[in-house]
Design a protein that fits this description.
The complex is a heterodimer of chains A (about 220) and B (about 210). With about 220 residues, chain A is of the alpha+beta class. Chain A has helices spanning about 15-25, 45, 70-80, 95-125, 135-155, 165-170, 175-180, 190-200, 205-210; strands spanning about 5, 30, 55-60, 65. Chain B is built from 9 helices and 4 strands; from the N terminus they run E-H-E-H-E-E-H-H-H-H-H-H-H. The chains are: A alpha+beta (about 220), B alpha+beta (about 210). Chain B: It catalyses: RX + glutathione = an S-substituted glutathione + a halide anion + H(+).
């Protein structure tokens, strides 16, 4: 039985999502780089793992999958134990669905905005590009409405799906981590429960480990 | 108290939930939400869906939103095999293609439907450039689907799953447009769609959507 392989680069937000979960469960894994600069993501070898030519892709023995939230769920299901937090709550119908609901909220409402703000305002300048300020501004306005919803929820429960931490919370890490390095980080000051939730999340060792592989934000 | 789905049955995201309900044979009511009068922004609705969208869902004291999460709740509650949660690898393959449905297929497909079906209904002009751009994106996605469905009968494997059924509402509308013929270039995708259409739950939901 081999070591699990994550294909991609740890600095990428979607790859970092998977690394957080691998660190949460303390699994053995290897990150296998995919070199976009030489078009490696379009090679038959990579397309066999991710037919859309994206990262991450993932292998565990004969299982080859893609889509970072799916990979994350697989890792958390495989390694669920009493030593780690129950991040999927699959023994409870309502709780597991609330995790799914807020994971969908992250994927549909939050990440599309914050990913692009972070990419344009932080990542692109780091790699010698110029961000799209109009896109940043549009997304910031939309993000305020989303954060209002989060503020209301996090005023009722400690974490998004309830008073227990879950994959839904952790899935927010990659884009938010880079967002906090942009000039717009203080937006969260207007949403004190969201800010407190984020600061609490960042105390988790798994997030610090994933951060170590990402662009430095200090 | 039976399960309640809030929204209109013609809406794709609402129809997605109806498919799961019909698959498991559950009893449910559809409670309309009137967008024309701003009901989706009312306090009563925002409590059910804080983004002011549809569907929202209630089962006794459980309140949910996000159609794919609601679908998972229904399928789990009734112990349907459409999520394959007894097998960790199969479940992952189902999850992959549900994520692909949302992340790759849904956007171009629903954009085309919105432009060529909804806009004319409101007397708005169709933006052909937007339609063409999304058609090109959709074709790239269908190339991937064609390759996948040449290897196995359904998206997650040789078994039908929620991943396949999650594609139904948007594809239903696409097949009502002139762009139905795009699928002729992808014979395995076309065959996959035709197989899905034979399912009793799907026929029932089509009747509900077109009522």
């Amino acid at each position: 039985m081999g070591v699990m392989k994550v294909y991609g680069v740890a600095r990428y937000m979607s790859v970092a999502r998977v690394i957080v979960c691998l660190e949460e469960v303390g699994a053995d894994y290897q990150v296998v780089p995919v070199d976009f600069a030489v078009g490696e993501h379009k090679t038959p070898a990579h397309l066999a793992r991710n037919p859309f030519g994206l990262i991450p892709a993932f292998e565990d023995d004969d299982l080859v999958i893609f889509e970072s939230r799916t990979i994350s769920k697989y890792v958390l299901r495989k390694y669920k134990s009493s030593d780690t937090d129950d991040l999927l709550r699959e023994n409870n119908l309502t709780e597991s669905t609330l995790v799914d609901q807020w994971l969908d909220v992250e994927a549909h409402h939050y990440d599309p905005l914050v990913f692009h703000i972070s990419y344009n305002a932080f990542v692109l300048p780091k790699i010698g590009g110029t961000g799209d300020q109009k896109l940043i501004d549009t997304n910031l306005e939309k993000l305020k409405k989303v954060l209002e919803v989060y503020e209301a929820q996090l005023s009722k429960t400690k974490y998004l799906a309830g008073n227990f931490i879950s994959l839904a919370d952790l899935s927010h890490f990659p884009a938010t981590y880079y967002f906090m390095a942009t000039p717009y980080a203080n937006l969260f000051d207007n949403y004190p429960h969201v800010k407190a939730w984020w600061e609490n999340l960042m105390t988790r060792p798994s997030l610090k480990k994933a951060a170590a592989g990402m662009f430095p934000v200090a | 108290m039976g399960m309640k789905v809030y929204g209109l049955t013609k809406t794709t995201n609402v129809a997605r939930v109806l498919i799961s309900l019909e698959e498991v044979g559950a009893e449910y009511d559809v409670v309309p939400v009137d967008f024309a009068t701003g009901e989706h922004k009312s306090q009563a609705h925002l409590i059910r869906n804080p983004f002011g969208q549809v569907p929202a869902f209630q089962d006794d004291d459980v309140m949910l939103f996000e159609s794919r999460a609601i679908s998972r709740y229904i399928l789990r509650k009734y112990k349907s095999n459409l999520l394959r949660e007894d097998d960790i690898k199969e479940a992952a393959l189902v999850d992959v293609w549900v994520d692909v449905e949302y992340g790759q297929y849904n956007t171009p497909a629903s954009s085309i439907c919105y432009n060529v079906i909804v806009k004319p209904m409101h007397g708005e002009e169709v933006d052909l450039e937007v339609v063409d751009t999304n058609l090109e994106k959709l074709k790239k996605v269908l190339e991937v689907y064609e390759a996948r469905l040449s290897q196995c009968k359904y998206l997650a494997g040789d078994f039908i799953s929620f991943a396949d059924l999650s594609h139904v509402p948007c594809t239903y509308y696409l097949m009502l447009t002139q762009y139905k013929s795009v699928f002729d270039s992808y014979p395995h995708v076309k065959a996959w769609w035709e197989a899905i259409m034979t399912r009793p739950s799907i026929k029932k939901v089509f009747d509900i959507m077109s009522a």
